[in-house]
Amino acid sequence: MPRPVARVLALLELLQSGGIRTVTELADRLDVDERTVRRYVGHLVDLDVPVESVRGRYGGYRLAPGYRMPPLMLSDDEALAVLLGLVAGRRAGLATDTASETAAAKIRRVLPERLSRRLDAVLGSLAFTDRPGEAVAPESTVLLSIADAVNHHRPISIRYTAADGRRSERTLHPHGVVAHSGRWYVTAADLTAGEDRTFRLDRITGVRTLPGSFEPPAGLDPAKRVLTGLATAPYRHEVTLRIQGTAEQIHTRLPAGIAIVEELPSPSSADPQTVRWSRVGLRVERLDWLPAVLASLDRPFIVERPDELRGLVEALAERLTNSARRSPPHE
Q: In 10 A of CB 239, how many CB atoms?
C-alpha cells in the first residue's frame, strides 16, 4: 500500500480511538509534518468521514459523536470474489504486492473463522499458468485525482518523468484512464506540447486540479488511443505485411497493442466469397519471433518490408522442412 494511503488509514484509526487529537500529536504519531496531517484530514472528509475541527488551546481533530466505520458484511461468494480479485490484480500489475496483501489481511480479520479458513484453503491451493506481471501500480492519490478530473472534465497540471529520465510539468485535458498489460495510462490533450498524448500514471509524481473545465472530443475511445500509441511507438524495426484475413482474425495472434491492421478493399472483379486482405503494420525491437507467429496464423501473407524478415521466414521454413523429413533413429 502506498505510504500516504496507509497513513490516512492510520489517522482514521487514531481518531476512532476517541477524544480530541492535537495536530502536533497526530504529526508525531504518523511521522509527518502538521501541514500533511491537515491534508490527510481533508482526504478523510472527501471520503465522507465526519472529522470535526475543534478550536482553542486544547483543540485539534475528532470524529463526530456516534460515528463508526460500517461493518463489512460479505457472503461466502462475495468474500471469495474480493480476495481472488486482489490476487488477480497483484499478478496483473494493477496493484502493488503490499496493497493487495494488507487489504486481504484486513478482510480476513473481520470474516468468521469458518469462512476465513475455507478461503485460505482456496488461495493456498491455487496455481496459475501465466507468469505474474510486473507491478507498476500508480500512487492512489494520482489515480483518484486524475479519474476525478476525467469525470468532471477538469484541466490538471502534472509532474512527469519520461522514460529517459527527463522531468517536466505539463498541463493536460485528461480524456480517459486505461489499464493495459499491468500498467495504467491517461490519454489527454497535452496543452504544453499542443498535441494528444498518452502518459503512464506510475511516472506521474504530482497532480494539481486547475480552475475551469473543457469539452472532451466527441467519439473518443481512450482504450483504442492507448493501443494505437503503443503499436506506433518508435522501435528498431518497422514491419509492413499483407495478410489474407480480417482484423479480428489477425488480432488473435497480433494484438491491437502490437499491430495496426487496416482491412483493404476488395477489387471490384473479386469473388465476394474470397477472404479479403489486410495491411498490417508493426514496430518491434526484434524480428526473430515474427516468423513463428505468422506461421501460427495459418494464412497467406506477403512481407513488404523489411527484407531481413523474408530471410528469417525462409530460414524457419527450411528448419521445419528438415525436421519433417527426419526419420526416427533405429533402436
A: 19
Q: Which among 59, 161, 74 has a CA at the least distance from the CA of 119?
A: 74
25-40, pLDDT tens digit by residue? 888 888 889 899 888 9
Question: Could you give the angle at the alpha carbon of 164 between the alpha carbons of 158 and 165, nearest 5°?
Answer: 55
Lookup: cell for 183: 500498467
Q: pLDDT, tens digit, for every residue of 44-60?
A: 888 888 888 888 776 78
Measured on CA atoms in the order 34, 39, 42, 47, is the torsion positive or negative? negative
Burial (CB count within 10 angstroms: exposed 0-12, middle 13-18, buried 19+), residue 7: buried
Give CA–CA dist 53/276, Å, rounded.
69
Q: Which residues contact 282 (CB under 8 A, 6 or more apart)?
A: 231, 238, 239, 241, 254, 258, 259, 260, 290
Question: How far does CA 1 lie from the centroid of its chain?
Answer: 16
Question: H helices within the chain, ranges in order?
Answer: 3-16, 23-30, 34-46, 76-91, 97-109, 113-125, 140-152, 222-231, 247-250, 290-297, 307-325
Please write down the HEC assignment for all residues of 253-313: CCCCCCEEEEECCCCCCCCCCCCCEEEEEEEECCCCCHHHHHHHHCCCEEEEECHHHHHHH
